[in-house]
Amino acid sequence: MTAKITRINPEQLHETPGYHHITVVETGRTAYLAGQCPLDRSGSLVGSGSLEAQADQVVANALAALAAAVDAEPEHVVRSVIYVRSDDRDVLGVAWRRLTESALGPAFTTASTLLGVAALGFTGQLIEVDLTVALPD
């Protein structure tokens, strides 16, 4: 049975820039992807100093993980957390737009959190994305 995913924005809560306040998964299995970092296959950081280039690598890595490991697509994501090494709202907005306008964009229409953080795991890393997926049959 394929998981039924319902995304809800209650009238009592503020409007969102594309995500939903609540995501309900009726049935099925769930996968939790490790934080997707802007690293290439050899483990080297991509796009040093460029949030856009790093976001693009994160998207590529997330799409590969979804397809290879769990045969899922961005539409199957039910929760995302985006970490950006910045406390500047404009920079956070750049990250949000880059991700939501990418091939991974549908993943961010679900329950989503965008955080500005002081540091990430790799030297020079500017962005990381954590995804939870309702697996298709």
What's the quick description here?
This protein is an alpha+beta fold.
What does this structure look like?
The protein has helices spanning 51-70, 89-100; strands at residues 5-8, 22-25, 30-32, 77-84, 111-116, 127-134. By secondary structure, it is an alpha+beta fold. Strands 3-6-4-5 form a 4-stranded mixed β-sheet, with helices on one face. The protein contains 2 helices and 6 strands, in the order βββαβαββ. 23% of the residues lie in helices and 24% in strands.
| Major beta sheet summary | 4 strands, mixed
Strand fraction:
15-25%
Q: Count of helical segments? A: 2
Overall radius of gyration: 15 Å
Structural class: alpha+beta
Q: What attributes characterize this protein structure?
A:
four-stranded mixed β-sheet, two-stranded antiparallel sheet, about 140 residues, alpha+beta, 6 strands
SSE topology:
Blueprint: E1 5-8, E2 22-25, E3 30-32, H1 51-70, E4 77-84, H2 89-100, E5 111-116, E6 127-134
Parallel strand pairs: 4-5
Antiparallel strand pairs: 1-2, 3-6, 4-6
Helix pairs in contact: 1-2
